[in-house]
């Protein structure tokens, strides 16, 4: 058994209920805030302290992890350590100096590639997906990057993470170019 304290900070809770879905034995919603059974309240924080089995602890940790606002803390009382903290900390983090060498690091996505352009008349971004035979198979048009990349993801036109990142970067550049009325050239930097 694990002696833990579960806390919910109501100043952070936005009441989306994700914790309730993950751990209904501990979390429920009241007045659009997550609450705990027999909770104590100190300021904006409600809490309970109890012994949990491995399975119960896993559910409580899952609930804390899915909270979109880091409103839930799970604290191991015996070990005096946060199992899930509400504050983001970078102490002890590994720091990597990012570098990219096109000649060495570029890997073509076996699914295909994208041709991107802007359509100033309609304020749209157009993405043509080409397969490896240089044939445009699908054209996706939209006004916002999020609309376009969600559709492209749903169509499963990308198989490499860096390709998805590249698409997001190019779409945002195209969007900025449309907003500012400047030229967009795929793979070139914007001239602002
Ligand atoms: S998941 Fe977080 S934000 Fe959502 S109801 Fe639970 S505590 Fe509140």
Under CATH at level 1, the class of the largest domain stands as Alpha Beta
Structure annotation, total helices: 5
Element order: H for helix, E for strand: EHEEEEHEEHEEEHH
Q: Nearest-angstrom radius of gyration?
A: 24 Å
Indicate the low-confidence ranges by residue numbers: none
Oligomer: single chain
Helix content, binned percent: 25-40%
Output mean pLDDT. 95
Q: What structural class results from the helix and strand content? A: alpha+beta
Strand content: 25-35%
| Count of folded domains | 2
- In CATH, the topology of the largest domain is named Alpha-Beta Plaits
Biggest sheet details? 5 strands, antiparallel
Describe the structure in your own words.
By secondary structure, this protein is α+β, with helices and mostly antiparallel strands. The protein has helices at 18-22, 54-66, 102-105, 145-154, 161-180, and strands at 2-9, 28-30, 33-35, 40-42, 45-52, 72-76, 81-84, 113-119, 124-130, 136-142. It has 2 domains: 2-84, Alpha-Beta Plaits; 102-180, no CATH class. The chain has 5 helices and 10 strands; from the N terminus they run βαββββαββαβββαα. Helix 4 runs antiparallel to helix 5 (161-180). The longest helix is centred in the last third of the chain and has 20 residues, at 161-180. The termini are far apart. Iron/sulfur cluster binds next to helix 1.
């Amino acid at each position: 058994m694990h002696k833990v304290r579960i806390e919910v900070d109501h100043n952070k809770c936005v009441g989306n209920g994700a914790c309730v879905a993950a751990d209904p034995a501990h979390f429920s919603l009241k007045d659009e805030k997550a609450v705990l059974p027999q909770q104590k309240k100190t300021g904006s924080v409600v809490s309970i302290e109890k012994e949990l089995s491995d399975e119960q602890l896993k559910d409580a940790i899952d609930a804390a992890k899915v909270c979109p606002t880091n409103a839930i803390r799970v604290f191991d009382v015996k070990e005096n350590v946060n199992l899930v903290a509400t504050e983001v900390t970078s102490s002890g983090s590994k720091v990597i100096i990012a570098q990219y060498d096109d000649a060495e690091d570029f890997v073509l996505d076996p699914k295909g590639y994208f041709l991107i352009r802007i359509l100033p008349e309609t304020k749209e971004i157009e993405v043509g997906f080409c397969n490896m035979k240089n044939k445009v198979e699908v054209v996706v048009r939209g006004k916002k990057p999020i609309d376009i990349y969600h559709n492209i993801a749903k169509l499963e036109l990308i198989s490499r993470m860096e390709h998805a990142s590249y698409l997001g970067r190019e779409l945002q550049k195209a969007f900025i170019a449309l907003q500012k009325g400047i030229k967009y050239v795929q793979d070139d930097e914007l001239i602002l």
